[in-house]
Amino acid sequence: MLTAYPNGDGFFQQDNAPCHGARIVQEWFQEHGGDFTLLRWPPQSPALNPIEHLWDKVKRANRQLVPQPSNLTELHSAIHQAWCQIPCIIFQHLVESMPRRITTVLKAKGGPTKY
Asked: For residue 40, which of 5, 13, 70 has the smallest C-alpha distance?
């Protein structure tokens, strides 16, 4: 974060998934609290977290690999390649969809949505 935002004015999105609640993770956030602003989101909320859609694209691409990655180095490379192949327009559409997502979640009062 300090590389991209040396003034400490960056934001880190935290979705509060159970694996992110580990003591070591919480301690890290406390230690680095002045380096960025931590945004808290509802736990495991794909309705509000557009990154879930991007990870789905990466997972789908990697499931189609033959042969499948057989070690961490190959897996890292496959994930990186799949991520880099996502067209920029997809990122833009996800960002632009946020007002619609928020409106939909508010109308559903936090209940299920098409997202």
From this structure: 13
Can you tell me which residue has the tokens 């098409």? Answer: 114
**Nearest-angstrom CA–CA distance, 80 and 83:** 5
Any bridge partners for residue 37, and if so which?
A: 11
pLDDT tens digits, one per residue of 59-104: 999 999 999 999 999 999 999 999 999 999 999 999 999 999 889 8
The C-alpha atoms of residue 33 and residue 56 are separated, in whole angstroms, by 30
Q: In terms of residue numbers, what domain contains 16?
A: 10-40
Residues paired with residue 36 on neighbouring β-strands, in sequence order: 10
Q: Are residues 73 and 30 in the same domain?
A: no
Examine residue 59 and state whether it is found in any structural domain, yes or no.
Answer: yes
Matching residue, tokens 């490379």: 77
